[in-house]
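> example.struct
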């Protein structure tokens, strides 16, 4: 219920459209109800009865006796007319009433369309904004396909099930209420059977809808797993082919897909039960109405033409009641999707920021790590264990060690993609957790081991995050990254598209584009996590020359295995199983003949 109320709260952005929508629905209901008493004289004429004006109302016109005055004026107007002439007038009145009813029905839909689309737009925008502001740690145990499912399928479920049904949930009760009032006016006794129908419908459908909501949640979760499986299979298609795992994946997909079909069938069966059930209950009550209505007409409690109008009013209730029942089912089904969306929107997991954050524009003195320890959630051992050292501003520090030693984790902590569990990382004496996040991100640039490119032009990938960069600056950054020449050789130069994840470029080309992006920002702090690992020897040579120029005079943290990248660093921090075992420059560490010496000898053998 809270989810539904929060969704309704989004309507405040569309007050004018909502007011026009509700007004149109009210007018549609009014003209629908007004068409019922207009049919009574029509049935009188059709049954060849004589039309006579009723007595003049004794009381002056008021809200309570407005119907008597309207009936008197209308019947007085028809009094004395020929039957054919009066029948023609009545047909014109009925046609006009139904025209106005359908006109306002269309206007209600017309004003509702931008409301529905607007709320879906707002939901997607809020969801995307929330996703990109989540800390990196949030995505560690999340399936990308499941997140995509919430962003696409679950939002669509909200639009198709909840928002489409909200209009019926507003309009249909108005029609039911108006028809009921007219029926009570004609015969309170016969109307009692209608209340019996409504009561039975609410009790039966209400019980089924609770189960529908639970099943719908399972459907959406299963679809998320299905999409995650497809995404992983496509991403790793080369591995699938090389290991001949097609049959294995087909069997796994078959199981997930069959279970999705199984739970979806049960949701649809339960949902589709509402319409035939409502119709069956309606027909049953109609038969009861015919039986008791015939007796009421024979006893003179109600005229035959009034009973026909009563029946028509009752049929006006059946369809809206069915629509309302379907709407209730669909809202329950859609709320399952909405709750999955809200699991992200209402998540409290975010990168915390101090109440009074300290602004930082540059790095003047040092980066200091003091007794830093960190462990990934669910891991069996810490990734970083009690590490302490400092990085003077304007120097280059290389992090070396075998795979799994904690090098990339260390850079992630210094970039504050994660917060330390114990200890602290400070910039110019200020704990990174006390710094203003937006300012801190501006002073740094990261080039990761796997270059991340977006399905856009080369130019836009280089200028990513840089709003006021000139073309000359972009070309200069590309030249420094040794990328300018190969960019000009592409079909459209800087406006060439790189494809999905940059798959139209080679590994080395993608890495150089990523380097150019970092160089363009000209940050005080540069973090390179195996930034040259994807380059061939020739490209690495020129990029290394460019990097040496770029890193000169700025604080640089380099994760690397190759000696050519390491030996010129001002200091080298050697990590082993998350611990800092040695620190110094190349000559100092070689003299110690410790872990670094062993590491370099192994590298020399591998080279």
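> example.seq
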């Amino acid at each position: 219920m809270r989810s539904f109320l929060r969704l309704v709260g989004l309507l405040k952005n569309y007050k004018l459209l909502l007011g026009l929508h509700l007004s149109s629905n009210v007018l549609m209901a009014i003209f629908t109800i007004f068409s019922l008493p207009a049919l009574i004289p029509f049935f009188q004429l059709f049954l060849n009865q004589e039309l006579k004006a009723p007595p003049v109302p004794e009381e002056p016109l008021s809200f309570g006796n407005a119907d008597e005055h309207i009936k008197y004026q209308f019947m007085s107007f028809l009094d004395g007319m020929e039957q054919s002439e009066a029948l023609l007038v009545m047909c014109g009145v009925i046609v006009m009433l139904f025209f106005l009813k359908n006109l306002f029905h269309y206007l209600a839909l017309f004003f509702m369309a931008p409301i529905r689309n607007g709320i879906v737009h707002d939901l997607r925008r809020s969801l995307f904004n929330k996703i990109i502001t989540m800390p990196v740690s949030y995505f560690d145990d999340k399936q990308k396909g499941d997140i995509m499912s919430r962003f696409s399928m679950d939002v669509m479920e909200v639009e198709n099930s909840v928002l489409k049904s909200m209009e019926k949930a507003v309009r249909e009760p108005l029609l039911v209420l108006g028809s009921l009032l007219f029926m009570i006016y004609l015969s309170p006794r016969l109307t009692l059977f209608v209340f019996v129908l409504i009561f039975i419908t609410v009790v039966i459908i209400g019980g089924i809808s609770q189960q529908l909501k639970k099943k719908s949640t399972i459907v959406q979760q299963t679809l998320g797993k299905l999409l995650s499986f497809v995404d992983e299979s496509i991403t790793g298609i080369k591995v699938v082919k090389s290991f001949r795992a097609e049959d294995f994946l087909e069997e796994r997909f078959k199981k997930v897909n069959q279970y999705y079909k199984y739970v979806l069938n049960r949701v649809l069966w339960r949902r589709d039960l509402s319409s035939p059930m409502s119709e069956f209950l309606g027909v049953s009550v109609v038969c009861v109405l015919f039986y008791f209505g015939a007796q009421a007409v024979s006893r003179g409690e109600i005229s035959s033409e009034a009973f026909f109008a009563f029946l028509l009013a009752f049929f006006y209730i059946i369809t809206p009641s069915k629509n309302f029942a379907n709407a209730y089912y669909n809202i329950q089904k859609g709320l399952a999707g909405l709750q999955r969306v809200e699991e992200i929107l209402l998540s409290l997991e975010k990168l915390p920021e101090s109440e009074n954050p300290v602004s930082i524009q540059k790095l003047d003195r040092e980066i200091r790590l003091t007794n830093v320890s960190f462990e990934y959630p669910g891991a069996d051992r810490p990734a970083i264990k009690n590490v302490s050292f400092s990085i003077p501003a304007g120097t280059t520090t290389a992090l070396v060690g075998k795979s799994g030693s904690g090098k990339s984790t260390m850079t992630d902590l210094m970039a504050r993609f994660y917060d330390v569990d114990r200890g602290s990382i400070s910039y110019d004496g200020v704990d990174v957790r006390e710094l203003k996040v937006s300012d801190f991100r501006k002073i740094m640039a990261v080039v990761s081991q796997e270059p991340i490119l977006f399905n856009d032009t080369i130019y836009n990938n280089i200028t990513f995050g840089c709003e006021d960069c000139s073309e000359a600056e972009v070309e200069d950054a590309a030249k420094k990254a040794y990328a300018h020449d190969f960019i000009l050789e592409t079909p459209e130069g800087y406006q060439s598209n790189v494809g999905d994840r940059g798959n139209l470029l080679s590994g080395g080309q993608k890495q150089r584009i990523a380097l150019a992006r970092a160089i363009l920002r000209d940050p005080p702090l540069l973090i390179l996590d195996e930034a040259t690992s994807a380059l061939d020897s020739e490209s690495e040579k020129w990029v290394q020359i460019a990097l040496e120029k770029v890193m000169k005079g700025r604080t640089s943290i380099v994760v690397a295995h190759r000696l050519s990248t390491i030996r010129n660093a001002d200091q080298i921090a050697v990590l082993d199983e998350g611990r800092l075992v040695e620190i110094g420059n190349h000559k100092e560490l070689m003299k110690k003949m410790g872990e670094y010496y062993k590491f370099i000898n192994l590298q020399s053998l591998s080279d």
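> remarks
The chain is about 65% helix and 10% strand.
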